[in-house]
Amino acid sequence: MGRPTIVSIPGASSLPIFSDRLVAAVTSRGYTIHTLQLPSVGLSEGPQEGPPSSMYDDAALISSHVSKLADAGQDILLVTHSYGGTPATESLRGLSKRSRRDQDLPGGVIGIAYITSFVPEVGKSAGSIKAGFPGLSKVPMAVDEAGWLYYTDIPGVAAMSFSSMPPEEGQLWAGRLARHSAASFANPLTYAGFKDVPVSYLLCENDLAIPPIVQQSIIDMIERETGRSVDVTSIDADHVAPLSSPDTVAEWIVGIAEKLTS
């Protein structure tokens, strides 16, 4: 089996610039990686026309992109970060390599690799996961009159999500976060895609936005729902590991790809 194509699904409010370091690190290791910009991600400044997109719009974009790669005979490893874990999971209906083989179709998804990602149970949403831990600190944000989430305290966001960076650098990146659809965090999952493919999870030990206790609860849920072990790796990283620790994350991704194709 040849090397799979990596399809990276970013977190909330993440514009393509947030993926540049990871793309470079993965590419330098001989793999092709595609990073998608989700419809639920708005603009950094100013209003965006039309209502905010839903999580289902994000899932449809992922499904369309992955389907085209699979139709061309490619195997795909889905890699997700933060909010991106939810639409990526939703998108997997009929896209696993096994499912496509049963339909006499080429290619397909051979695994999903979650990086400190929100993965809800069917019937629950990304936003409901952390709500189950009321004592935890919240990322400082609000919702405008059009339904877009925005960040109300850039230094506070930097301290939570970019905590391994020097304060000035963290605040620079936090200031680049775009608006994000509030509805996408409330849309419930309708398909448990993690049941269809092998699952890996990168647990980020210093994540203050999705703390380890929340990440572990997600891992436990997936193992309970699938009856299979999740391939868990723990690293000394903050919430934005693809940005702050790109080489470590790239090594993890490549390691998973090699295990799945050996």
Automatic annotation (TrEMBL):
It holds the Pfam family Abhydrolase_6. Residues 9-251 form the AB hydrolase-1 domain. Keywords: Hydrolase. One of its GO terms (molecular function) is hydrolase activity. PANTHER family: AB HYDROLASE-1 DOMAIN-CONTAINING PROTEIN-RELATED, ESTERASE_LIPASE_THIOESTERASE DOMAIN-CONTAINING PROTEIN. This is Alpha/beta hydrolase fold-1. It comes from Stachybotrys elegans. The lineage of its organism: Eukaryota, Fungi, Dikarya, Ascomycota, Pezizomycotina.
